[in-house]
Automatic annotation (TrEMBL):
Cofactor(s), by name: FAD
Domain FAD dependent oxidoreductase residue range list: 7-372
UniProt source species: Pseudorhizobium endolithicum
Keywords from the named record: FAD, Flavoprotein, Oxidoreductase
Keyword Zinc-finger: no
Protein name: FAD-dependent oxidoreductase
Listed InterPro entries: FAD-dep_OxRdtase, FAD/NAD-bd_sf, MTOX
Length: 396
């Protein structure tokens, strides 16, 4: 016997959980279907997600108006989600951008400063090299570097905790949460048939929000034009003496003279193993992940050893106070669309929609993206206030 719902969201990650919450606020008969985090990555043979972590940078300062808008809308709801769920996930540590003086529209910081001005983001302060040295002694930047500091409504979020909060609120709103992997989605007899965990589910409309795994298991009628790229992150283990130095630093994004040395840095965060780590990642990736075996092997690894060495060296140049810290690394996956924007739209079927394409910047905006996914199912499309035409999915 099939289980009947009006709407089903496939994918229990940051976008999918948010979409289920927003749907549950407006409709009954909502289901969220997706597996939980595996207990052992090395032996796991199913799907993964990149939100299995304790920290992601959040900020409104952005070189793309769409992403800046989505971030601002999502950040405005952080405290509401925390208070409603009782789960804290937002740390208002501020966010710092540092890089060479921007001079043209080709520079990210130039575009971001202009967007901040047009959107009245007045809290961002431009800093000279001398300002950076005096305000943020954790860093040693070259003398030609300037900064943009966003002190409020910026910092970092705990993605695991945010997903827990979204699911808790969705269930409180009446949504059904099924922890299972979906292995079939197809339109059948004027509705959508979903197979997961040995069960059959029916819905009027389905939203696929499966991240990097959206093109796996033939879940979509056609393959999305989207890359799944491997990324490596490095962790510096901090003990009490180092914490005194780095505890007050903001989330930081550094644009260096060489593109391969661009990095993002998370302030010290306590992880489930009881240790405190400062995390650092970059923009370098090698190849794409396409087959299920590729994903499994990558997530079970500690990332790319060469990238780990490069990131460690870059970190020590920027933050010499990390010298001597124990380091470790992990694998992450980023999804990239040709447009640089997320996908939020329908497939060839008016009953099956897709929400994916984080482009390595979507965690902070996931609640707004989930809201857009909910609007898709409820209203059958997105208006231009939500940049709907700019997020039309592209298929191969």
């Amino acid at each position: 016997m099939a289980r009947e719902f009006k709407y089903i969201v496939i994918g229990g990650g940051m976008m999918g959980a948010a979409a289920a919450r927003h749907l549950s606020q407006r409709e009954e008969a909502v289901a969220l279907i997706g597996p939980g985090e595996p207990s052992d990555y090395r032996t796991h043979h199913g799907v993964f997600a990149s939100h299995y972590d304790e920290a992601r940078i959040t900020r409104r300062f952005d070189g793309d108006l769409i992403w800046a808008t989505f971030a601002a809308r999502a950040i405005d709801r952080y405290r509401e989600i925390e208070e409603g769920s009782g789960i804290r996930f937002f740390s208002e540590a501020g966010c710092l951008f540092a890089g060479p003086e921007p001079r043209s529209d080709a520079d990210y910081l130039y575009r971001a400063a202009r967007i901040a001005e047009t959107t009245s983001l007045t809290t961002v302060e431009k800093l000279t090299a001398r300002d950076l040295t005096s305000r943020f002694p954790q860093f040693e930047f070259p003398g030609h570097v300037v900064g943009y500091h966003e002190p409020v409504q910026a910092g970092h979020i705990n993605p695991r905790a945010l997903v827990r909060a979204q699911i808790a609120l969705a269930k409180r709103g009446g949504a059904t949460h099924v922890e299972a992997t979906v292995n079939s989605v197809r339109e059948e007899g004027g509705r959508v048939r979903v197979e997961a965990g040995g069960e059959i589910f029916h819905a009027e409309r389905v939203l696929l929000a499966a991240g990097a795994f959206s093109n796996q298991n033939d879940l979509l009628p056609r393959t999305l034009e989207m890359r799944a790229a491997p990324r490596t992150v490095v962790f510096f283990e901090l003990h009490e003496a180092r914490l005194a130095t780095f505890a007050t630093m903001p989330s930081t994004i550094v644009f260096t003279d060489r593109e391969e040395d661009h990095v993002y840095i998370l302030p010290p965060v306590r992880y489930p193993d009881g240790k405190t780590y400062l995390k650092l990642g970059g923009d370098i990736e090698t190849g794409d992940l396409t087959r299920p075996d590729d994903f499994r092997a990558w997530f079970a690894s500690a990332g790319n050893p060469q990238e780990r060495r490069r990131l460690t060296e870059t970190a020590l140049q920027i933050m010499p106070g990390l010298e001597g810290c124990l380091t470790s690394s992990a694998a992450c996956v980023a999804t990239f669309t040709p447009t640089g924007r997320p996908y939020a739209g329908f497939t060839d079927s008016s009953r099956i929609a897709v929400l994916t394409g984080g482009n390595f910047v979507a965690a902070k905006s996931s609640d707004e993206l989930g809201r857009l996914g909910a609007v898709l199912l409820l209203e059958g499309g997105l208006g231009e206030d939500d940049f709907g035409s700019l997020m039309t999915p592209l298929f191969r």
